Q: What sequence folds into this?
C-alpha cells in the first residue's frame, strides 16, 4: 500500500462562492479556484507524488489538470469516485433549504447520517460505494505518495474512512482550510472488516438519532426522508 495520500480539495467554484449545493453536478472552477489551485500546485512541487488521481466532478478534473501540469503527472480519472448525490437539493442555496424545508434542514444539520436529500443518497450509501474504490486505489501502489483530487463533501467522506475524522458540517467550506493535506496510510487505513472492530468508526446504526422518526425502519436500513 502507498505510504501517504495527498488529499486535494477541488478548487473553488461559483457555487461555493454563492453558498449553493453542488453535489454530483459538474461545475467548472471560477477565477479564484484556478488561482488557489495554481498556488497549491506550486506548494506540492517538492512532495513528489508517484501518481495523480481525480474524482469525476468537473471541478476535480479541472483542478487535477492544473496540478498535473505543474507536477508533470497525467491525472487518472477514477470512474466510480463520484461526489455525494444530494438529489433535489443540488443547485439550491443552503439558505433556500433552510427556509423552504426547515425540518429536513434541521435534521441534516443535527445528524446527516440519518437523512437523505430528496431523490439523493444516504451518507452511509456513499461511504459503502467509496470505500472499495478507495481501498483498491491505495493498494495499487506498494509505496510512495499518491495525490487524489476530490470535491467536498466527498473529501470529508474520504478523511472519515481513512482517518476517522469528524465529518463536521458537510455544507461548509472554510477558505482558511488548506487546499491539500497529507495523510499517513500505514498507520491509518483499515479494511472494512477491521473498521467494524475499531471504535473510531461507529456504524451508521450507532449514530445518535435526534428524533424517534429517524430510527431505522423494519429491515435494519435507514429510511430516506421525504419532504
A:
Amino acid at each position: 500500500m502507498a505510504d501517504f495520500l495527498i488529499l486535494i480539495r477541488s478548487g473553488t467554484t461559483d457555487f461555493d462562492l454563492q453558498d449553493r449545493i453542488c453535489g454530483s453536478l459538474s461545475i467548472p472552477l471560477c477565477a479564484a479556484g484556478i488561482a488557489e489551485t495554481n498556488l497549491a500546485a506550486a506548494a506540492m512541487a517538492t512532495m513528489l507524488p508517484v501518481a495523480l488521481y481525480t474524482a469525476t466532478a468537473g471541478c476535480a478534473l479541472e483542478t487535477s489538470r492544473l496540478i498535473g501540469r505543474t507536477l508533470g503527472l497525467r491525472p487518472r480519472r477514477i470512474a466510480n469516485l463520484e461526489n455525494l448525490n444530494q438529489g433535489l437539493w443540488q443547485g439550491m442555496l443552503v439558505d433556500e433549504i433552510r427556509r423552504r424545508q426547515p425540518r429536513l434542514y434541521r435534521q441534516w444539520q443535527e445528524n446527516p447520517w440519518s437523512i437523505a436529500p430528496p431523490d439523493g443518497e444516504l451518507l452511509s450509501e456513499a461511504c459503502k460505494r467509496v470505500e472499495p474504490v478507495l481501498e483498491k486505489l491505495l493498494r495499487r501502489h506498494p509505496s510512495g505518495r499518491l495525490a487524489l483530487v476530490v470535491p467536498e463533501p466527498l473529501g470529508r467522506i474520504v478523511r472519515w474512512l481513512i482517518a476517522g475524522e469528524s465529518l463536521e458540517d458537510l455544507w461548509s467550506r472554510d477558505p482558511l482550510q488548506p487546499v491539500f493535506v497529507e495523510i499517513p496510510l500505514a498507520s491509518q487505513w483499515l479494511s472494512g472488516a477491521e473498521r467494524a472492530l475499531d471504535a473510531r468508526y461507529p456504524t451508521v446504526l450507532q449514530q445518535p438519532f435526534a428524533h424517534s422518526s429517524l430510527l431505522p425502519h423494519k429491515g435494519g436500513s435507514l429510511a430516506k426522508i421525504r419532504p
Notes: The longest helix spans residues 123-139.
